[in-house]
Amino acid sequence: MAIGIGIDTGGTYTDAVVYDFNSNKVLCSSKALTTHEKLEKGIINALSLLEDKYFPEVEIVALSTTLATNACVENKGGRAKLLFFGVDKKVFDMVGINYGLTNKNDVHLCHNSSDFNGNKAQEPDWDKLFLELDEWLQDAQGLGIVEVFAMNNGAMLEKAAKLQVQERYDIPVVCGHELFYELNSIQRGSSTLLNAKLIPTIQQFLESIKTALFKMNINAPIAVVRSDSTKMSEQYSKMKPVETILSGPASSVTGGINITNEKNCLIIDMGGTTTDISIVKNGIPLKADSGVKIGSWKTFVHGVYIDTFGLGGDSAIRVEHGKIIQLPQRMIPLCVAASRWQQINQELEKLADSKKYHSHPLYEFLYLQKKITNRSSYSKEELELCDLVENEPVLLEKAATAINRDIYTINTKRLEAEGIIIRIGLTPTDIMHVKKDFCAFDELAPTIAVRYLLSCILEETGIEYSEEEFCDMVYDTIKLKLYENIVRILLTDKYPDNFKNGMDEQLINLIRASYNDNTDKDLPIRFRTEMSLVGIGAPTHIFLPDVAKALGTRCVIPQDAKVANAIGAVVSNVRSTYQVEIRSEYDGSFIVFTPSGRHALTDFDKAVEFAKQEASNEALKDARAKGLAESFKIDTQVVTKTATAKKGRQIDLGTVIIATVSGNIEYN
Q1: Which of 140, 350, 611, 618 is the most exposed place for a label (fewest CB within 10 A)?
Q2: Measured between alpha carbons, how far is 130 from 123 in angstroms, rounded to an integer?
Q3: How far apart are CA 295 and CA 302, in angstroms?
Q4: What is the DSSP letter of 291?
Q5: What DSSP designation does 452 have?
Q6: CA angle 440, 564, 427 (to 5 degrees)
Q7: How many other C-beta atoms are found inside a 10 Å radius of the C-beta of residue 2?
Q8: Starting from the edge strand earliest in sequence, which strands make up the sheet with 394-395, in order?
Q9: What is the pLDDT of residues 90-104, one digit of tens each?
């Protein structure tokens, strides 16, 4: 047998499968809680539930993860900087925010740059520059370097800057040209900065995986799933973690297609932190047109089309002004926390008995998820708070009092954004426990929290709801959020030009109104689709059937739905693409822009052949870095770009050569 292990580490659960490549069957599978404070613990727990008789035969361990996805959605990650050469400050200030460059303190602009034609730039005085930047770089956990016209001159300035940084600092450095070949420099800059922010996340993940495999006596190479559902080697992923921003969702698409026979469907993966939706037509998943957009980030990452929004089993449920709301913020469910710390129930009982109403969520706890490594980078208040909640959770108001603050002035924003502190609070998983739809953990804690919230609603609105009514309202909130986003995605796919800038609030409200619009006979609103809804992920069987019914379609929950991501990880392959541009000059020559620089040729056909060779070499080089096996396929495509001027005259905008290398990853 040819055996592989697929592992998916999500925000809530870590899934694992043993897969037989010869029979294309799952031999065994498992599911365990993701342990964020010590990732290897959850991975070991998942592996321990597999049949270890297969371990000596394992030839590859393939990983997918939503850790980077969740970091983008929740705006978390390491401290990273971007050294940006040649961009105009006015342009950066005006459009940078549209691509996710929201914190200008993370970016340093340098005026040095080559020109559009790739002519060499004047290098800065490096000693002077890094004397100026020394303090700025002290807390950096990753650095990105981007130059506006790097793609037209072999990235000479980026390469020189990287060498200068590596001589002076011990921080990971990745240049824009090492990640992307597209020309939009602002988008290249945002993508490169995001990559730097994710380096600590992926490195921690890989170290945890290696520790777990060692303890389980599994000796096999590691591969990681990229956002386009293909694999890359462990070494490749360490410096290019931005490629994993849709790793988990991409694996769910591959896994969903693998375990169902649905040719036209929406694959809906509801995890702990996010819900990821992809569109499959004629058995093929749609691709993202111009790079993956996730959270506030607009990137050049190539991936399957995934629409990701903050809705999962661990999403925060709160009551504001007497109404139930769901937030994208991930929390540890009360039921999970109470299974570990008995005082959770005692503290909640005291709070519920006190009938103390407040606009802030008094029933939420703070807990140290990750220890601070560089204490000098944090305030006295932040350090005191971390020390306070290191060993056990503390109620929000108690924590504020302990550090001489009150509930209005305690500031946990940065600590939560960096994943150091996490909240424990009410989530959909808790409501599932109250309704007994899922009973893996403590049922008492969420029941007490619901009782407390019911008293808060009564205090504010005068309306008295039962426990069952409250839980049903939470379920309806989740179903409505799913329905609203599915309709939005289908409308955007059908009418892309109409909704390229999103939907206005009026249309969103109309979509929401249509969910329960069964009584209006004068003007009923209906949205219908023939595309089936394929539910992936543990909670989908609870919420998706009613949503499918509202859309007049079928709901499909496959047998291995709970571990589809792990299946998708292990069955994926390697693929690399590279493109080279050819531009015609006024003197009749043709300039080929390659990683080694610009090359002038006098014959167009020779320029095309040269560009094909260069693009193929780069694609093959990249694929081999990802772990490509010796047997592979190379395809090249010639794309001529034109525009129509007055009187129908065609204008040549250049030619792009695209080379694609595909094949299996190297096994043991």
Answers
A1: 350
A2: 13
A3: 16
A4: S
A5: H
A6: 40
A7: 13
A8: 332-333, 421-425, 365-368, 394-395
A9: 999 999 999 989 888
